[in-house]
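Backbones bend. To wit:
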Amino acid sequence: MTFEEILDQAIAMLQRRGRLTYGALKRQFQLDDAYLEDVKAELIEGQRVAVDEQGRVLVWAGDAAMTPAPPTTPAPDRALLAYTPPHLTEKILTAQGTMEGERKQVTVLFADIKGSTELIGGLDPEAAQQLLDPAIHRMMAAVHRYEGTVNQGLGDGIMALFGAPIAHEEHALRACYASIAMQTALRGYADEVRRAHGMPLQIRVGLNAGDVVVRAIGNDLHMDYSAVGQTTHLAARMEQLATPGSILLTAATLRLVEGLVRVHALGPVPVKGLVEPVEVWELVGASGLRQRLQAAVARGLTQFVGRQPELDALHQALEHAGAGHGQVAAIVGEAGVGKSRLVYECIHSHRTRAWLVLESASVSYGKATPYFPVVELLKRYLHIEDTDEPRTVRAKVTGHILTLDEALHDTIPALLSLLDVLPDDHVFLQLDPPQRRQRTLEALKRVLLRESQVQPLVLVFEDLHWIDTETQAVLDRVVESLPTARLLLLVNYRPEYQHGWGSKTYYAQLRLDPLPPASADELLQALLGDDPSLAPLTPLLIARTEGNPFFLEESGRTLVETGVLGGTPGAYRLIQPLQGMPIPATVQAVLAARIDRLPPEDKHLLQTAAVIGTDVPFPLLRGIADVPEAALHSGLAHLQAAEFLYETRLFPEQEHTFRHALTHEVAYSSLLLERRRGLHARIVEALETLAPERGAEQVERLAHHALRGEVWEKAVAYGRQAGARAYDRAAFGEAVASFEQALQARTHLHDHSDTGRLAIDLRLALGNALTQVGEHGRRLALLGEAEALARALDDRARLGRVLATMAEVLRLTGDPDAPWQRVSRPSCSRPRWARAPYRCMRPISWGWYTGPSATSAGRPNCYGRVWRWRTGRRVRPVHTCASGPGRG
């Protein structure tokens, strides 16, 4: 290994373990004394991630420098390519172009062999490698089984990512399953090591879900990434906290897999580098549930709304099938619209009491496993448990099939082979693969059709968009034999799935769209309640989720978990102001995976469109997309066909709109900040070039993009114009927001007299808008800042305006003595010129009125000047203050 590779692996080991002896470093990397001194110097002095303890131990000190965690740049590892299955390598390299330079939500897995230093102590380096390599290979195989990516080899362990570079909406569940498979695989090898060496071999695993920035993916599958926040750090800490043989995960991970795995709560645990303790859970095993709906049933289902016509159609299909006219009913819709819930309501109604219902579902990680959902369905049909011995399984299959019909005895070998319990010397296994396949397909069809003659049968196959080719062949066989069977094949899938059943007269497709507003409102009322404080929240949630039931439910749960809503289910109330609504992690995972399945050019076009906004004018997109117009039209057509965008206008110019607000947010958030800034800045230029005469109409859009593109001078100018425009329309809330953005942008300009005067003017304008929304306290604070700026600039005119406005605000707040106390207080400390009469300005309907200030009897200087001016009286101004009348 190169010095850099050794250094990176040493840092990773030290970060995970916290402490590392120099002897362990020498043994792990076969270092001589001189090489060790170089590594030690680089860790302590060069990288400043460690400190020396008594000349024997390195102690991790990188946390103090990690706020947030620094970019992690693991060294390339050719072994990753060597041990990655070819089909997975192809997927990773295919995803290379679509993932680089993006923020991705992933689950990070760290696993290592506990006590590896003691285990290989005294062994020759080659013997040590022969001992550890089989364990590492088993870890990697478990990761690859669930399409994770081993990003880094750590000597005695691995680091893996799920969700990048191959996008998966259930990345956390895959990581959990991989961890369980890893522990199971290591137990057998550990027995061999114990017998050969007399020492235990156990691994510990840590999981955490969060965001990373994918920088680049090398052809050796090494991925250069940067952690966002504590994503990688927490995963490493979970591994370090885990006892040998255990798996620990964080709350962020559990939130994505709740109900689908079994966990044991360990409570808050102090974590090095973090101020607050972290809630930690131990992963015990899989729960047996594979779908979100199954987990929701265990928690308690929400009210079923808005799908009565579709449910009636399924009941009608049941009637036809029950009369001996087999049916295929297909429910089609995007993720979260309620396909599985509709199936659940159908098969759990009183109409199916006399029916045998067999359920199964495809899973994304089972697409490469032939017959995956068929095997699950067979196990349910034949009452086979995962803990059954092979002999028990064979007895159950044989007994059930012969009881059904002795003529089916020739189907038994095919069924036993599917269940992996057929003896190795059986003649069925000697057949050619095509013959075995044909007999398997025929056996399954015959058994199911014969069962439907005994009692009507509902076969449920869900999520066909993840179906494997062999299960597809089984369904095709069954569909061809349906016309005279008492069998309903009930399936659901997303729009991208294709099949050849559409021409069958006994096929019916039910398209599920998001809930209409009335039904969405009914669902939210059942979820959250009808407290008056929820009135502004309900329409916001419906608009944001477009009525998608799953998105609505998850958004509600997120608001409860983040403390925005308080109370009990069905009786919540708003207890915190709404300040932006985070996208639920479960929803983000679904939408991000869907976007990542787009071809690279279409995905980049969608992300570019997302920077423009939810509404995407074609001329503006053409101006910033950097693609030929023909390719642009083709890409938009693809995005329309995939239902990411829809066309909303053709004249006077073509315009598209994002079909879903959350899709827009996820596409936008996946872009790195640098690319976002560049696109926003280009949009400003394009808007100014395309329609310079429409600048006033588009000033809000110009202000928005200038601010996010960090074009600061334009952000100030357009923000100020947008605020004035909103104020003139009496849209005072929008005026406040625009002036605040302009004021924020001004802080990025160089300080000089012009920008100082601009800062005063913006505070005055913002103050006027704040008064209209009743925020007098904030206005006074701004006026105080403006007063200080005006004095620093020696700007008498602006100081007069500020003091006049301040006096009026104080008078309006109800304290008649407050104005002169506040305004005159600094009079004696001002220079002589500042105690002279000011020319103040008064806004009236047709412009600005200027007039001399004056003094009123019995009141100090400044308040007297302002008050007499406001009442319109003109007298000779005289300065008075606590030092005595007439001075100055």
